Amino acid sequence: MAKGKTKPLMPSLREKKRYLAYELISSEKFDALEINKSIMNNAKEFLGDFGMAKAGIIPMNDQHNTNKQRGVLRVAHKELDSVKASFIFLRKINNNSVILRSVGSSGVLKKVQQKYLN
């Protein structure tokens, strides 16, 4: 067998993505890791293992505004609505009542940063 580089995926075969900006409404301040861990656990409960694989949720820990309690998730474009629906069921983080809501989405990370994080 010939050893060599694996051929990269053609752009038409790559998964299309959306960047989903969210806002956490709470009396307490949480860091990005706590919020994203809770979002992932909640989404797994709502979507299941297969749904999580289809959704391809990737938390962007470095894209987080702690003052506004806003952050960004990378999601498959076809599963954007199901990820938004899973936000409804997140009620508590560390026994503190929270409301998680979607602020907006875009196909470009820079646009989400400008519109929703700053």
Calculate the mean pLDDT score and round it.
93
Euclidean distance between termini CA atoms: 52 Å
Oligomer: single chain
Main sheet: strands, sense, barrel: 4 strands, antiparallel
User: Strand order of the main beta sheet, please?
Assistant: 2-3-1-6
For the record, the CATH architecture stands as: 2-Layer Sandwich
At the fourth level of CATH, the homologous superfamily is Ribonuclease P, Pop5 subunit
Explain what you see.
This protein is globular. The chain has a single domain, classed as Ribonuclease P, Pop5 subunit (Alpha-Beta Plaits, 2-Layer Sandwich). It starts with 16 loop residues before the first strand and ends with a helix. Strands 2-3-1-6 form a 4-stranded antiparallel sheet, sandwiched between helices. A two-stranded antiparallel sheet has the order 4-5. By secondary structure, it is α+β, with helices and mostly antiparallel strands. The protein contains 3 helices and 6 strands, in the order βαββαβββα. 35% of the residues lie in helices and 31% in strands. The mean pLDDT is 93.
